[in-house]
User: Fold this.
Amino acid sequence: DLKIRNEIFFSKIITILLGIFAIIFVLFFDPSKGIFSTLVKTTFSGLVVLFPTTFAVLYFKRISKWACIFSIIFGELSIIIFRMGILPTFGFLDGILAFFIAFMVLIMINISNNY
Assistant:
């Protein structure tokens, strides 16, 4: 019973966070670039962050669940930071830089959990 309540609470928190993310996306949308271009870039960037975790789970038996979770979180946060212009992308697509950040976080946290 407690486990089900925790899952429901966690689901509510995730739903609220996704709603906040959608509001932020709408607030920073640039109409001059067009909605289709923005959605394609956002979708690519969001999915490319998931690749290091997916690859690690499929091919490495000793990967930590915390490394996977933090890899996705830091990757998605880096997408937001690059999109808002807080950090420069140096001409690269923000998804490429977020991929490397997610990959490095995955490796660092997995190594630190094993020791």
